Amino acid sequence: QVTLKESGPVVVRPTETLTLTCTVSGFSLSNARMIVGWIRQPPGKALEWLAHILSTDEKSYSTSLGTRLSISKDTSKGQVVLSMTNMAPLDTATYYCGRMGVRGTTHRYFDVWGRGTLVTVSS
Amino acid sequence: DIQMTQSPSTLSASVGDRVTITCRASQAIGSYLAWYQQKPGKAPELLIYRASSLEGGVPSRFSGSGSETEFTLTISSLQPDDFATYFCQQYKSHVLTFGGGTKVEIK
Predict the structure, then answer these.
(1) B58-100 pLDDT per residue, tens
(2) Second label for B97, Cα 20 to 30 Å away, from A3, A37, A66, A109?
(3) For A111, which DSSP code?
């Protein structure tokens, strides 16, 4: 069974750096077709893709947030880590990780999602 | 970035109704479009990929159509479990983008 699980702080202070971990099971991050990405959703608002990483270590980032984001993976641990610098109250959202690429690396839609983790930015 | 515009933003319908949601892309994306359903407090779930391919386990009352810049998600006969928010997502570009969502409410 394929699962993804997000973990990280519940509350972050303004200007701090957020670090989130996505732990996957049921598939390997070394699988050539597997891609793991991050998406966020402010309360009551739409989904926003943030970044993703391929097994080759190729990375893509949101145009609007790219300078604040960093994504990496530890294949041996089955983990993908997202860092976002200079957090602000507008970054309050549920952060999801998801798997893509099950039908090939050009098929970048999320077939499996984690349950998400709510991150609140507040002093 | 490719902008995805969904309409309507909210839709009121009754059980048994045929429902259609539209998603428009700001530039041609071929068939690189997916649809998701999201219920309150839950993660989105994949319904449709490649514009019209039904994900495994998704009821056949859901269907997708369209190409390039205009796409539709149709629910042929709305069921109580279908009241939710629906999002489209393009994956033509390596910069992925979602539509703003369509909330399907009980009339």
Answers:
(1) 999 999 999 999 999 999 999 999 999 999 999 999 999 999 9
(2) A3
(3) S
